[in-house]
Write a structure and sequence with these properties.
homodimer; 265 residues; alpha+beta; PSTPO5379-like; PSTPO5379-like fold; 2 domains; 4-stranded antiparallel beta sheet; 6 helices; 11 strands; 22% helix; globular
Chain lengths: 265, 265
């Protein structure tokens, strides 16, 4: 993400730049304050299983919106948006295999496609930064480190698989403050699910994340783990639906919601 | 505390049993649901310094009430109570030295005595237990382990000294939940101030607490530390006021407030 120079002041402008093919980069640093979402698109046949899966796994899969079949505008998140074109980059999966990473999916669209918009940790990161908690991967301009765990998601229908977590190193007192802050964002993964003892959730080497980039940890810091919106991609690889479309990691759907609208308490 | 058999159903009954000399034990297990408080009594000359000290150190010294000079009934906490007789056991300190542990202080009372009632972690422990978080020292029937730290209180007037913390071992996910629960109790120490890395706050051996009793820690647990109402006693030893009266550790002033009245959020 270090190479991103382009900055948008409104989500609409960023979506239009994606639609025209002008912007194909990572969204995290390209715009501030607007809620970004993970995307999972499934044919209707598989969509009900996934809806149940998300309901049973709200920490990794907090649903911000679910469209009707064939609908490509999640109106409650962004009027006049188009999920076929408004993300910088997509991933197309067949039988659990990644087969393409196009910048739009108009040619792949089906009338039975149901789209799931899932909360993303970028939302609480801005709240942490405002509270003076450093976020290492943002400081370094890299993607957050993510790890497969030995925690299994609650299965639903044909979906099953491991939970993926994102990790942010911080001091113990920052970790306590981060629990308080992120508890106020239940719709974007909420509070951490683990901290301090990575081996306990099956992570043997923090230096080699399964997704994203490694970040250094200081001697006075502990690793803090949040449920991660990349979990559905790990579950797709395991559950092998015939066809799935997702966002490409870091290339999110940028909504018109403001991050601060998602707080509670 | 394992020897306590007597149980009171209302705080008034427990206070009257202290007043008559019938009850001289530890209060924690003797009654449930009523807010218990730490007590610090100082002559007026030193009271203003301590008031400022508490204001600057709200985590270890959350004030539930402060009396007028000579007043021995903290009316907002307990009508008709008498701070001279209604605690099971007191400590009398001269020049920072503990000189006596009487069961009442009527003979020591002075017209210029100002009493400080300070929140106690017993309040949030019941909320943790109700939430399914085990509290080791309660399971074992011993006093909570407490440690002097290398964290200094913010000085005020003639008062200065180290922060004392209480420690509860728990799994990482229980620790996260405990942060959420205790954040809702700001008037009884609130969220933990540290976790996971005891050496960072100057604790070299968890097995030898400076106050209270040691408790075993399981392999899958981390130590979680809260600011502790015993801090004033450590500060008294350091700051050496001519005369101070406190409760004896574990023998608290039991108020008519219910623990659940102290929650926020």
């Amino acid at each position: 993400m270090g190479e991103i120079k382009q900055t948008f002041s409104h989500s609409k402008d960023l979506r239009l730049a994606c639609r025209s093919g002008e912007f194909t980069g990572q969204t995290s640093a390209a715009i501030k304050g607007f809620t970004q979402a993970n995307l999972v698109i499934l044919p209707e046949d598989w969509a009900n299983d996934f809806l149940l899966f998300a309901q049973r796994n709200p920490k990794p899969c907090p649903l911000l919106a679910v469209t009707n079949p064939g609908e490509f505008t999640p109106k409650t998140l962004a009027e006049n948006s188009d999920l076929r074109t408004d993300l910088p980059r997509y991933r197309i999966w067949k039988q659990g295999e990644l087969i393409a990473e196009p910048t739009e999916i108009s040619d792949h669209w089906q009338d039975d496609f149901v789209s799931f918009l899932i909360g993303c940790s970028f939302t609480f990161e801005s709240a942490m930064l405002r509270a003076g908690i450093p976020v290492r991967h943002i400081e370094l301009g890299v993607n957050v480190p993510m790890y497969l765990t030995n925690l299994q998601c609650e299965p639903a229908g044909r979906f099953r698989g491991p939970q993926v977590v994102s990790m942010r190193p911080m001091t113990p007192s920052q970790a306590i403050h981060a629990v308080q802050i992120t508890s106020r964002f239940p719709s974007v993964h909420g509070a951490p699910i683990h901290l301090g003892l990575p081996a306990q959730i099956g992570i043997v080497d923090l230096g080699t994340p399964d997704f994203g980039d490694p970040v250094p940890m200081k001697e006075n810091e502990i690793p803090v783990f949040w449920a991660c919106g990349v979990t559905p991609q790990a579950v797709i690889q395991k559950s092998k639906p015939p066809l799935v479309v997702t966002h490409s990691p870091g290339s999110m759907f940028v909504t018109d919601l403001k991050d601060d609208e998602l707080t509670v308490g």
